[in-house]
Amino acid sequence: MTTFRISEAAGLLGVSADTVRRWVDGGRLAAVRDEHGHRLVPGVELAAFVRSQAWRNEPGEHRASSARNRLRGIVTDVIRDGVMAQVEIQAGPFRVVSLMSREAADELGLDVGVVAEAVVKSTNVVVELAG
After folding, report:
1. Quick check: 34 and 28 in contact, CB under 8 A?
2. How many Å apart are CA 40 and CA 2, to the nearest integer?
3. How far, in Å, CA of 101 to CA of 115, rounded?
4. Which of 38, 46, 96, 101 has its C-alpha lying 20 to 30 A from 75's C-alpha?
């Protein structure tokens, strides 16, 4: 069974270890103790928790899309030229860079400091084991 130390779980979730401890103490996230009394989060429990926290449409919000991979973050850089724009978003520990038309970036009002979602739809995704 794969388990994660509190700090490892926090790193995977993009939150502080204190936040994960509060979730465990509050019963939102299951944990077990090892032989030294340290808390470990079972991988299966962490995966279930992450799924339960996934983005959902807010009441009254109508957003129809087949894309399921949404990374909410803050725009950290926008480089515009005559036709194209390069937009960088920091979504937790993930840096996402998107190339789009300048017109699209302007219409969306994408500037440094704006909260945005990177939406990824792909049938070609490479999966690697962390090592």
Report:
1. no
2. 10
3. 19
4. 46
